[in-house]
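Chapter review. Work through the record for Cation-translocating P-type ATPase before attempting the end-of-chapter questions.
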Amino acid sequence: MTRIWWRGQWAVPVASGALILASIAAARLFGSNQVADLLMVAAAVVAGAGIVVKAMRALTARVIGIDLLVSVAAIGAVIIGEYWEAAAVTFLFAIGHALEHATLTKTRSALAELVAVAPDVAVVLRDGDQVEVPAAAVAPGETVLVKNGAKVPVDGEVIGGTGALDEASITGESIPVEKAEGDQVFAGTVSRGGLLQVRATGIGADTTLARIIHRVEEAQDAKAKTQAFMDRFSAWYTPGIIVLAVVVGLLTGDVVLALTLLVIGCPGALVISIPVSIVAGIGRGARDGILIKGGEYLETSAKISAVALDKTGTLTEGRPHLTDVVVLDPAADRATVLGWAARAEAGSEHPLARPIIDAARAEGLDVTGLPAHTDPVPGKGILAALDGRRVAVGNLPLLVAEGIDDGGAAATVERLAGAGRTPMVVAVDGRVLGVVAVADRVRADAAQMVANLHAAGVKKVVMLTGDQPLVARAVAAQVGVDEVRAGLLPEDKLDAVRELQAEGHVVAMVGDGVNDAPALATADIGVAMGAAGTGVAIETADIALMGDQLLKLPEAVGLARRTVHNMRQNIAVALVTVVLLLAGVLLGGVTMAVGMLVHEASVLIVIVNAMRLLRRRAARHAPVNPAPAAERALRSSAEAPAATRG
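Structure tokens for Cation-translocating P-type ATPase:
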């Protein structure tokens, strides 16, 4: 422990403090003023040497900073015989540096934690034997064993076994996730049970964890607009303080007063007020599975007033499922209708075929084999030859084209479509048996997410979708968005974002990054969801939500606003302290040592305030009441022709 203190950031202030105590002891116990003065000068030299070196380096780069102010003040105090003032100023400034270093280290702890979870070794199957090798030595395609309690050493795909993985280091989700064959796993996650065989797809720098560490490292060093402004302010402020001190010294003839002004005018708390908040905010986000690209984007995110959401895969799961089987022929039953539909769809490549086939299998129906002949009808449905019979599965226009009487199916189709589902009539040999319907399932937390966005201060939540208006309206009614625009092409989504910006909104666009790419690029903040394992999303999105969890979105907005509010608090504390101290020096009563003590106390206050951002906040859920917003959404829905199956 002593070695850590001596060699760490506290070595200089500890040594300087010890010399100051020795000086005081020499004066009081032995009455030796010369020895006391010598020890006090030594304390000033120990604490001030590094400060002077930094000041000289800054001057060679034509930068006049705080270190120069302290250096001039300390050297001047020694010259005029104010040894205690010189030692006190440099000692307190050294303590301030140590505190700042320790705090930035603490606020960067999220990055340190990410680095710590990076695995060192892997157990690989080679020629049937289990071989322990360095994680970086695993070759792509090799089979890695992940046992209970072990860290996953690579990104990969499960090819055997089952288990539960703690993915908190990647997604921020603390609940272990069950893994089975075909599932993705990420380096740095920890097994909480079971045995997994993983085929390695990403090793070393190619893993999701490595990309996250790289992004957080860059983000914490990136400057916000306010920070850049403060840097420019300091470049003018510091020379201004020097000029003020010289003028006051010349007018009053009081060198001590001039030197005191130099020290008191140091904007130390002001300089660290913004970076310490940004580092803490980005670090907190990284722990929670929210990657923010940098200080500028964090600051912009705090101003978000409108959020545009893609529907499929964002508000919905992106996986259609069977919702209804309506029997219309008295001679048929549910199994008959679903069975004919599933067997016909077995020869179709349409995305809506899979949920029908899966549902039939789940109900124990035999859907093996393929139709003798399959004839897709674009925009209408499919015709198939099965067991010598002609089966039609599709919309009402398909029945008209085939000359089939709808048998009362029109009313059912209209009802199901009005509920946001995609209905398909099932007919065999010209006779309607019934209607099946599929729909994409709305995410369970979608409505809560919209409510939380409003609670976080977002004024408008808009759904942008290429789906048909009826489906879009049904989803809007469930989740409570303020506005829905349906039937949109990618360029239409881009126009919608621009319209929101023209209305004065700071817009965040949330999408999958493929068909939403133009809108994501145009929005003030582009948000990628479920970015774990997606290197492109991590590198290009302004905010990447590592877990596929909607509630992370309002959490990110809330974090950004808390961070900016924290920055403003810090700036206020720093400015008020400097103004009061300067006034105190000019009016009398504030000495160099007292002023420096108060100044360093303000630095400590700024640091402690920023560290509050590192605390995990308990989840706050706003009450969900989507009805009023849904009514507005229905009124503002873009009228577009209904999309058809095809």
